[in-house]
Each structure stands twice: as structure tokens, then as C-alpha cells.
Amino acid sequence: MVIVMGSEATPDDIESIVGLVATAGGEAFVSRGVSRTIIGLVGDVERFAALNLRGKSGVADVMRVSVPYKLVSRENHPERSTVRVGGVPIGPDTVTLIAGPCAVETPRQTLEAAEMAKAAGATLLRGGAFKPRTSPYAFQGLGEEGLRILADVREKTGLPIVTEVVDAHDVELVASYADMLQIGTRNTQNFALLQAVGKAGKPVMLKRGMSGTIEEWLMSAEYIAQRGNLDIVLCERGIRTFETATRNTLDVSAVPVAQRLSHLPVIIDPSHSGGRRDLVLPLTRAAVAVGADGVIIDVHPHPEQALCDGPQALVNGDLRELARVMRQFPPLLGRTLTDATHAVPVPA
Amino acid sequence: MVIVMGSEATPDDIESIVGLVATAGGEAFVSRGVSRTIIGLVGDVERFAALNLRGKSGVADVMRVSVPYKLVSRENHPERSTVRVGGVPIGPDTVTLIAGPCAVETPRQTLEAAEMAKAAGATLLRGGAFKPRTSPYAFQGLGEEGLRILADVREKTGLPIVTEVVDAHDVELVASYADMLQIGTRNTQNFALLQAVGKAGKPVMLKRGMSGTIEEWLMSAEYIAQRGNLDIVLCERGIRTFETATRNTLDVSAVPVAQRLSHLPVIIDPSHSGGRRDLVLPLTRAAVAVGADGVIIDVHPHPEQALCDGPQALVNGDLRELARVMRQFPPLLGRTLTDATHAVPVPA
Amino acid sequence: MVIVMGSEATPDDIESIVGLVATAGGEAFVSRGVSRTIIGLVGDVERFAALNLRGKSGVADVMRVSVPYKLVSRENHPERSTVRVGGVPIGPDTVTLIAGPCAVETPRQTLEAAEMAKAAGATLLRGGAFKPRTSPYAFQGLGEEGLRILADVREKTGLPIVTEVVDAHDVELVASYADMLQIGTRNTQNFALLQAVGKAGKPVMLKRGMSGTIEEWLMSAEYIAQRGNLDIVLCERGIRTFETATRNTLDVSAVPVAQRLSHLPVIIDPSHSGGRRDLVLPLTRAAVAVGADGVIIDVHPHPEQALCDGPQALVNGDLRELARVMRQFPPLLGRTLTDATHAVPVPA
Amino acid sequence: MVIVMGSEATPDDIESIVGLVATAGGEAFVSRGVSRTIIGLVGDVERFAALNLRGKSGVADVMRVSVPYKLVSRENHPERSTVRVGGVPIGPDTVTLIAGPCAVETPRQTLEAAEMAKAAGATLLRGGAFKPRTSPYAFQGLGEEGLRILADVREKTGLPIVTEVVDAHDVELVASYADMLQIGTRNTQNFALLQAVGKAGKPVMLKRGMSGTIEEWLMSAEYIAQRGNLDIVLCERGIRTFETATRNTLDVSAVPVAQRLSHLPVIIDPSHSGGRRDLVLPLTRAAVAVGADGVIIDVHPHPEQALCDGPQALVNGDLRELARVMRQFPPLLGRTLTDATHAVPVPA
């Protein structure tokens, strides 16, 4: 931690900071300049934070020089992690395709979408039973009935299930069906929910807040990790900017940045970033090329009838191209598409 | 609703839209231009929305021409509303000052802060017992103990209490102590929590999401209203932009815009917008001058010891100036500072 | 300047930094921590900047602790400045109203607008002869003919003229007519233009870039100041955010922040911020209340016929209210509306 | 164009709009709804724009349904264009690598950087002689001396030159040396400069404004095209957002969006987007994969001594990897890296 004293700071002000740091068991190194003095702090950052140094007389600025998260940081865990979902890995050696319908609507639509997903190379099935919607008048999902449909389709296709949970109260229920719990962009700072999934015993996919910094995203992951769950996959899904041609702006740079700061896998959601079907394939190629550990994609057998986000779902005609991308791009990065051979059996 | 057909749209595409609109009980007015055709829709927007017209062949764009919220809209409720909190009004005739500590820490700190608030003209006491914090390692609030302290200080000062609730699970508990439930910026789209406070039988203060549009904010209010609770006060608290000199950018324009779109009262939080003590008084003046129905301000007897947001709390020296602002500015807008004479007794 | 070394930095890396700093005539104070080392630099920042320390081996971050502008900084010039435009002051003791048409269209429209402006309390006339327009197909201004109209209206009303210059090539021409040169938001980082107005011998109004930070704005002012011209007035006019209900988001906090960092006067443009007539008066009140040294407002005798930004121009009916605001609000801040008594005669 | 009437609009208001549209030679189709009326306009949009319909009584909103640019639009020019720079193509069939130093510093540094660029597969040389810098105290480029160095290096390496022009006054000079004129992000709305390069008879690379929408970018291209120059290459270089881990946020989606709206080639600048060396290669891979027609990259023989943007320049060790990416990725998109065989001789 570095304290920058204002030009009006007195010697007493500086003395006082040095004393406080000592009481917190730290050491303060004072650099006196012509117009300003800088104090470097060495010791326990948590204890320094409790001193509220920013509020002290003469202090102009306090700058943190280490990251505020620990368990998810790469500093003490240089090896990148692999998270297994129903036996299927998401990690640095492969590229994992997760696909399925935005919302579970009927058994038939879900099964058809799962089969489309599988044909394109997916090894995990996505599908929403609980949908967070901006409007209270929009379709909110089938709830537990949707979870049952998903479980049934897993039975038929062998694809483990990734599904969203929107309320701490529902975590136990959703976890009893799902292989991976998804936290959506509007809930990235719903700390009660983060703590609940941290205790649920299932891997978690944590979307980035649509206006969240990468640091805040990692702090949210830390909330989950702190409850004992390190099976977390980060998912970049576009951030909010002034541009209106796309629903959000996909921040591909977030992938290498987050992978350097954290050991957790990082994937991309090309469907919700742009919100336009014509962008899904170009953004999927960019996602794999930038080094994402996976992609999660909306597919729908009849997008014109979809109850949610139909306009961005890939249709049958696009899936051959998706399959080609997933097969041809990963090898250029020394990876392969995750397939059945990477999965490990899960004990019953 | 207006449908803009793409230049590649065929007569059959247009025909098909007209037919669909008819099946939904609406009428379609077709305007054929040289390069494009426009279809104006008249009828029930909800039913049109369910048609997924955006996904149909030939459709280039779908433009909504009415607002997506109803209960909180001013269209059918031209009179601006007044919300009463423990008898104290927040509405178009007065300017209400809400003040208190960011976090409840001790009985003494809370009482001192409440007395400072009262001396400055406050008629409502703010104070957090449950604190949503970006870091899991930061002080998270005293919980129910904090609520008891608040209730005790209300007893002593007569100030009704505004306090935050962060988890749907805690709504009943918090509502049993509080006079008004506050929804923080990170929970503005926590729909489970919105629905829970909608049923809690207490007025709600709904902060704007730090990256939420005004329309999304009103949609979130609609979630609360839909459960039967129209005692909602909107609170602008700064939005996230590229500027780093302030914690957030206070959007004063949001006050007249939201007051024009909705009948609900709109207040401003000058403390959390800038995150700097030196900005609180200038932003408070701007808030009253732009037409806010109230302001909510952090005060702390000893900000250098505060466990939360100390650097932005007003101290004793600033409070005389705050009192002057609250007394002198409202009359220029034909209002008065809310005081004891505006409160109505609340039946026990 | 503070250098933060990465956890992988070697003793040689640190040694090397210390040596470089010494060659630049500075001193380096090394604070060794458990996981990181911090080096505080004292000396000439310009010379340190030339060392490219950020690129050196072992360096994780370089943090500047002093502002990068000098002439416009308040550090060495604690007194706030007053700028005189044709004798009329813009500064800390008064609030100056600048008003007039967005674009000069005809002699009659300009004269009528000037008379409206004067009646509302304006002591300076704004009006554009050269208009920067996003579309090459939009009205680009009357050019020199517009300047002649403005000069003629100045003759008739006694109001000094503020007008925009968009091309370094035109600075001499515009300066031969204008009393103050305006730099628009799209040209805030047009450094050739800034340097040209720096040499033109006329006061300059520098709008903030619509996506510029306050620091960048002050750096742009420094470009002008560096050419010997310190008669600069900063003008906040809204920044670009994700919100679409307003054209831009007026950042009122920028006024106290810029006034604290710089000695230059700071005014607000409430017309172009919101881009909506119904917001102009509320934002004007907020501008004066937050402490702006002036406001600049669009007025038009017949806004429905305006060739530019008609929808945001105040009309006759609003001007009485504007006059009242300009008369009643400044005294609450210990100021008065700038009027004829504040002007000093300008030698011919 | 579609006019949405407010709920308070009278039959006379509607009548009046219909009449105005007729006087402008257009047709108005009126759709009367229960609470609102919509008027679809068919005819000449330019003439409608001149009516200022938004300011008329009863009008709530005016929505444009066609794009405001023409010459650069893909609507009337469905084939994507190829622009040739000194014979080297930038277009849909190849991927062109442009590389070189951010700033020209010495003959030797420039020649070494050009040789590095060529070895990595570059067929065009970038290098700045005029540098727009936020600070007036930063290195501003060598000016004409830099242009002479570039011309000399072109002679030695055979690489045509891309270089920035920052002042309309310098366009002729820069054009007398350069093969392609670059317009930087701070000048994207410097309309005087756009018009000057439009007449200069050389291809132009137009960077996107750092806070510019895609539509504004295309409007800026229209300014150039309007002066008779359609040899324009669009360059995405990152936009300004709230994220601070990267200098800007690279908006890869802008490539397919702009390619769909315009026939002009679109390239990406991965160096200036992130501002970090470790991001250049991942972002280059993403750029090629998303479908960019080229990339422009900073290389420097000794980045630790660079006078400008050293921290983001690729060094020798990275260039083999860059060469591999440029060779292996384009074929997956049915393209090849632009090489000598694609160049056509330029008549002397």
C-alpha cells in the first residue's frame, strides 16, 4: 500500500501515519519530495485497510498495490485450473462447447435443441428454467418443471446440465437437478446468492456483471470460493457501453486479462453479447482465437417461436459451421475440442 | 408498435405480418415506400410482443412506441404521488432530508449521527445494518443487532428509519423494524428481492442500478408495484462512466426525466454519487435545484473511525451549511423543507 | 512517482531502477515488502517519464502522484481566475449568462435571439457561424457571413460575441470578429486547433470532450495555455454514457472537481447536455447551484424553424423563468448575476 | 421515417404533419391507435429532415428507418470493396498485415522495425511522423524529417507507407510522401481534416473515435467519400468504457457490423486497443478470426527505449508467433495473408 500525502501535509501528519502503521504491525518507508511525500507500507493489508488511512489529516491518496482477492488469484496458484462438470472438463487444454436453448419451453424443444447442440460438438447442455427478465410481464421460465425436462433430456443425451439460479432460496432445488449452477449478469453482485451457491456443492458458472470491472468479477468469485467452492468458471458476456448497434460490447480482452489474474477457467457467451444471430459465429471464432476455455451458445430448433431471445439463437443451418469452427480453430492454439474422451465417469 | 421491413422483404413477408397481427386482434397499417415498407400496429402490445415479430422473415426492425411499464407510469396517473414513511411525506410539495450513518456500528455512534441529522433538518434516519460489500473481507454490517440499535434510536429521536435489505430471506425481519426498505444499486435487478419487498407492506426506496437506464429502473419499480406496493421512492445515486475522478457520475437529469415518465417521487444520494466529502454539499445544492423530492446523506460523528465509506460522510462542521441549504433552496422552487408539521401521526 | 515492482522482480531489477533514477537526477526510496517492493521517486517527473520505467524488467506498475498539467493547475495558483470577454467577467464572484442561437441563420433571427438573451440577463451573446456536424449533409453554418451578422448584432445590442471555430485555418478570421473563441466537444483534442487559438490573442471557451476525462480536459487547456493564452474558460456539456433518454449525461460534479484542480473558471451548457427543451431550466438551476461560474444557453425566436438543434432552444415563454433563476439563485451562493456594472470598458 | 404522435396530439396536429409532408413531396400514412397515432412517411428523407418535424406540436418522437450515409453504405453497393495502397490490397479475399513503429525516431530504428515487420509478413509499413499527444509536454513526432525517413525506408524495403496526418494544413505535405493517410481516433470528427484528406488523392485509414458509435464512424467516412475519395479503410482500435485493466476495450463486434453496413474494408489495431504487449497476440488472433480484413501492429526493435507507446510494441521474440498466426488463421476463413503476389505494380 502506498500513501500519497497532500502538499499541505505537515510533519505531524506524516508522523501520525507512521505511528498508525506501526500499531497495525507494519512498517512505513517515507520518501520526502520537493512538493509531496510518499509513504510505502509493508505488512498486512487487511489491517491497514481497517485504519481508514484515506480519512486521515494530510492524506491525498491511498493506492493499493496488491490484488484484493486471494483464493481465486493466480499469484499463489500459478497453474491454471480445470473445472469438471459431470465429468466434462473446462480448462486450459481443451475448448468446451456448451449449447442449448436460452429457455426451456417444452420437452420436445429442449430435446431437439440438445441434439442440435450435440451434433455441433457440445458436451454440456445449457437451458434456463428460471429466467431473470427486465420486465415483470415477460416469460419467467417454467421453474421446477423446466428442471425436470432438463434432467430428462440429460438422461436421453448424456449431456450434463448447466442452468441458472436467480434466488438464494432456490439454490438447493436447482442444485438437486443441475450439474452446474449459472449466475447471471444481473446477479453478479447478489452476494446472498453467491454465498448460497458457494455452499451448494456444485460447480458454478459466474457471468461478468454487464457493467462490472474484471476486478469486481474476481471479487464476486472470491465470495463463492470463500464458502469452500473453487469449482468456478468465469463467463464474459459483453459489457454495457454507449454503442447501440449491439446489445452489449463483447470484451474479448477480458479473457487473457482474467486468465492472467486468476487461475480459474474463462469462457465466452457470444450469443448474449451481441444479441444478434449474425454475430454469433464471428464472435465464437474470436472467442476461441483469443484463448477462451470454452463458449456457451444459444440454439433453438424454431427460433421464430422462441419465448426468449429467439433472434440470437443459432439454427440448424448455422450448426455445421459452428461444428467446423470448434474442430478447426482449437488446434491452432494447441488445444482440442472437449469430447467424450476427455470426460471422466462420475460415481453414481 | 412499428415494424420496419428490410429492403429484401417480399410481398408475402408483408402479408404474413399483417395476418399475424390480425390473429392477435390488432390492426396493421402498411406504408409502402420506394426502398422500404413500414407497418404501423394498433392493438394490445403484450399480444404483439408474444408474436416475436422481430424474428420473422423480412423484418428489419421493431420499434416500440409506448412505455413498457404501467403501474408506475405517469401516462395514466398524471398527478405526482406522495409516499409517507412513518407519517413523513416524500413528494412534490416538500424536500425531505434523510440522513444518518452509512453503517450502524454502535448505539452511541448511531444516536450521535441521528442527532446530527436532526439538527440539520432531517426527518428520516438512514443507517445500514445489512451492507452489500464488493469484497467478502469487508465489514458486512451488524445484522439484526443493527436493526435493534436503529429502533432504539428511533425511540429516542422520533425519526422513522430507512434501512437496506439485501436478501429476500431477510425481508420479513428487516420490515419488522424498518419504516422504509432500501434496495441498493447492486440489487436493482435482483427480481426475487423486488418481489419480496413488494409484498412486505412497507414503503420502498429503490436505488438506480449503477449502470441501469432510467427505463430499466422504472421496470424494476414495476416489479414492486405489481405485488401491490405503490409506495416506492426512486433514488438516483450516480452511474458508472469512464470518469475516474469521482466514484460515480451523478446524473441530475434523471430526476426531471423520471418525474416526467413516472408519478413516483425521485430523490438523490449525493454522498454515494461522488464518494468524496468535498462534493456532498455542491451536489446536494444541485439535487434540490434540479427538483429532487429529497436527498439522502451520510453523516458520521467520527468519519475517520467509520467502518464504511467514512471519506464521504459529512461532519459536524458541514452540517450548519447543509441546514442552510435545506432551508434556503427549496423556497426558490415553491417548496419547503419537510418538517414536523408535515408529518401525520401513525396509528399504533 | 511510485514504481511497484512485480513479485517476480529480482534485486538486480530494483538496482537497475535506482540507477536509472539517479541518472535522471532523482532519488529513489526503496520499500521492500514480503511479496512486493515499492520504489518512491523524488525529482523531475518529466525526466522520469522519459525513462520509460513502465517497460523495464520487473516493473509491475508506475503510478503518478502529481498532476500532468502545470499552467492551468491550481497547485501553484491557488486564487481562482477571472476571465474577461469584451470587458465582461467570468469568474468566482458572479454567475455569467451567455445566450443566443445555436446557429446564426439570418440577421433578424440573430437580433431577435440576442434581444431575448439580453432580456433574460445575458451579458454575452453566443451564436455559431461555423458548425461542426456529424453528417456532411447537415447545415454547416453561414461562415464569414454569419460572423458579420454577429458583429452587427453586437453593435446593436452591446453584447460581446462568443462563437465557435472548427478549423485552425479559420482562427485568424474568426478572431477578427469574435470576443471569445469557442472550441467544441469534437475538437477538444484537436491539438493543432488548440495551439492556433492559443496564439490568437482572444479568450477561449473550451468544451469538455464528450468522452473526455476531467484530466484530459485540463491537458487540452494546458495546450492553449502553453502558447501564452491563459484566458480560458472550461465548459462542461455532458458526457457520453449508456443512458439514451438524454443526448448526453450532464456531469455536474465536474464543476467542483475542475475548480479544485484548476484556477480557470468553469461553466455549464445545459442546452446541449440533455438535448431537450424541458431539461434546460432544471439543469440551469442545478448548474448555478453546484457552483458553476456561468451558463451558456440556446435561445431561438422560432425554434420550430431552427436549422440546428431547435428542439432544445428556449423560447420566449421560458425566458422569464430563466431570468428569475439567474436573479434568485446566485445570491444563495454569495454571488450575483453578472450585469453591466461588472463590465469594464474595453479600450478601442 | 416514422412520426409517433403524443397521446395529447389533436386531429389538427396530425392534419398539419400530413400537410407538411405533402409540401415536401412525400406521402404520409396515418395509423390511428387507441392511445397513439403513428404516421409513416415515404419520400425524400433529406427534405423531411428539413421540416424539423420533431419540433412540431403533438409530435412525441421521430424515428429514422434508413441509414444516414449513402456513398459508403452497402445498401447500394452490395459487393465489398478492396482498397489498394501502393499496389497492396486491403479487402475481403486476404488479410493484410500493417506493422511498424508507433513513432519514427531515427533512420536506424525505423529500418530495423520495418525489417521486423516484413519478416513477420507485413506488406505495409506504419510509422508516425506527426503524433497527436494528450500532453503538450510529450514527444510530438519528427515532422517532415520523419516523413523523409519513412520514404527512405520504403525505398530500402519496398513497403508502402501508412502515416498519420493531424492537421488539415499538413495534408498536402504528408500526402507527398505517404501511400496512405491515417486519421487518428482523436480526429475522427475533425471535419476540416476529413474534407482535406478527401481531396488529397491518397487512400485513407480512418480510425474509429474512441467514444464514437459505428454509425458516427461511417458518417465520418461519408465526409471523406463526399470529396470524391472512396479509398477508405475503417480501423477499429478500442472504445472507451468503465474498464480500467485495459487502455480501451477492443470492440471486435464492430468488424462484422461495419462490414454489413458498409462496403469498405475494416481492420483492427490490437496494439492501441489494450495498450499492453501481452494482449497484442491474443487480440490479433481474435481480429483475424472475427473476419477483419487486416491488422495494424506496433513493433519496435528496442521498446524499452521507445519515445511513444513502448509498452505495447511487439519485440523480436513475439514476431515468429505473429508470423505463424498470420499464416495459419486466414485459411480457416477462406483467405490468405496478403503477400507480394497480391500487389500490383504502381505506375511511376
UniProtKB/TrEMBL annotation, chains A, B, C, D:
<dbReference type="Pfam" id="PF00793">
    <property type="entry name" value="DAHP_synth_1"/>
</dbReference>
<dbReference type="GO" id="GO:0003849">
    <property type="term" value="F:3-deoxy-7-phosphoheptulonate synthase activity"/>
</dbReference>
<dbReference type="InterPro" id="IPR006218">
    <property type="entry name" value="DAHP1/KDSA"/>
</dbReference>
<feature type="domain" description="DAHP synthase ferredoxin-like">
    <location>
        <begin position="1"/>
        <end position="66"/>
    </location>
</feature>
<feature type="domain" description="DAHP synthetase I/KDSA">
    <location>
        <begin position="87"/>
        <end position="328"/>
    </location>
</feature>
<dbReference type="InterPro" id="IPR006268">
    <property type="entry name" value="DAHP_syn_2"/>
</dbReference>
<protein>
    <submittedName>
        <fullName>3-deoxy-7-phosphoheptulonate synthase</fullName>
        <ecNumber>2.5.1.54</ecNumber>
    </submittedName>
</protein>
<dbReference type="Pfam" id="PF18152">
    <property type="entry name" value="DAHP_snth_FXD"/>
</dbReference>
<keyword id="KW-0808">Transferase</keyword>
<dbReference type="InterPro" id="IPR013785">
    <property type="entry name" value="Aldolase_TIM"/>
</dbReference>
<dbReference type="InterPro" id="IPR052899">
    <property type="entry name" value="Class-I_DAHP_synthase"/>
</dbReference>
<dbReference type="InterPro" id="IPR041071">
    <property type="entry name" value="DAHP_snth_FXD"/>
</dbReference>
